Amino acid sequence: MTRIAILGAGTAGTIMANRLRRRYAADVRAGRTTITVVDGAGMHLYQPGLLFVPFGQYDPADLVRPQRRQLHHDVALVRDSIDRVDSAANRVHLASGECLEYDVLVVATGARIAPDETEGMTGPGWRERVFDFYSLDGAIALREALARFEGGRLVASIVDLPIKCPVAPLEFAFLADDYFRRRGLRDRVTITYVTPLDGAFTKPRCTKELTHLLAEKGIELVTEFSTGAVDGEQGQLTSWDDRVVPFDLLVTVPLHAGAEFVARSPGLGDDMGFVRTDPATLQATVAPNVFAIGDATNVPASKAGSVAHFEAEVLTANIARFLAGEPLARDFDGHANCFIETGNHKALLIDFNYEVEPVPGRFPFAGVGPLRLLRESRLNHLGKLAFRWIYWNVLLPGRDIPGVGPRMSRRGKDLALTALKPSTN
């Protein structure tokens, strides 16, 4: 019997479980293969929706569903936390003291925010003047704070990279601009976007477009700012080189790290707790029968839901190759696409991979679209909103999206620009 264990029932883990169940349906029904998912959370959170909660556009109840309902009934779900992985013994040690043995292991435990790693962030002022929106509690608390905010200095800040959904902090700044305009308060609010990067984003062409939008909306851009400390009482954000950005309300994207058990698992992760993973095959470096997917990996692709979906197609095939004793295919090219909300019911769409940065063009069909790349439109905004339905009904069940494959298509794109080297986002 082949035992497949998947750690994590978030986006990547759920997609993988459902895809593998479909791949091995006959073997699962016959008892020749088992697929077991381990997660102690109980509820599945639609993380892209957290961005909209602070502005009252989504209700928190719309973002949460039981994990069990998102998994095929042939997939076993173990409600427990993970203590550590012993890859030498092919065994997962659970917090309850139980052990789960495997023939193939997929680590899909995502990334977590670690606000306590930044001096002062969770001290006085936390959830009073200092907020995050990368957690449900944080997004709800920020919604209440924004509703009370009548004017002053609003700062949106990234502590460090990598982070989940690298465009979300920019989206927050754009939506905040729109939010205060609709309330008639924009002239009483200054909005500052603070980033450790040397520009608004990691890709040059996209950075140019986004910087223009920030300037157009009157949002100040502060670059190369490496946050060292937060003073919630004094309302000060301080960098390691002693620059200070004052605030009345700070919306921070805290430091991200991998799941805590990774550090307790010999050889599995890097210094930040992300699983060391081959960026093309998605095989972990710790052992041949260990794989990783989604935000849990250290591959230089965006930590975004689209990436997990594309990775899952490649990884499902590679697990099948591994079990058949065949060489793995180096098929994952870092493909990512993201809608970037820009306010006023408009959005940008970007599509890129390890080597090619976001460029203008049409998506997903060359010459037809209907979506335009790297250009604001209302249709892109509608696409962003439609993604929630696609997420629950297409991505999580492990279905393919017509016309959008795991490898980035170059058709319909202006590729006159020089290809880029791999980046961290």
Beta-strand content bin: 25-35%
Task: Name the average pLDDT.
Answer: 95
Number of helices: 9
Tell me the name of the CATH homologous superfamily of the largest domain. FAD/NAD(P)-binding domain
Class by SSE composition: alpha/beta
Task: Give the domain tally.
Answer: 2
User: Architecture of the largest domain, according to CATH?
Assistant: 3-Layer(bba) Sandwich
For the record, the CATH class of the largest domain is Alpha Beta
Distance between the termini: 39 Å
The biggest beta sheet is recorded as: 5 strands, parallel
Strand order of the largest sheet: 5-2-1-9-20
- Unreliable parts: 418-425
Describe this structure in words.
- The protein has 425 residues and is an alpha/beta fold.
- The chain folds into two domains: 2-113 and 257-323, FAD/NAD(P)-binding domain (3-Layer(bba) Sandwich), CATH 3.50.50; 115-255, FAD/NAD(P)-binding domain, CATH 3.50.50.60.
- It is 25% helix and 25% strand.
- The chain contains nine helices and 24 strands.
- It has a five-stranded parallel beta sheet. It has a five-stranded parallel beta sheet with strand order 11-18-12-13-14. A three-stranded antiparallel beta sheet has the order 6-7-8.
- A hairpin with a 3-residue loop joins strand 23 (361-365) and strand 24 (369-373).
- Helix 1 (11-23) runs parallel beside helix 8.
- The longest helix has 19 residues, at 305-323.
- Mean pLDDT is 95; it is low at 418-425.
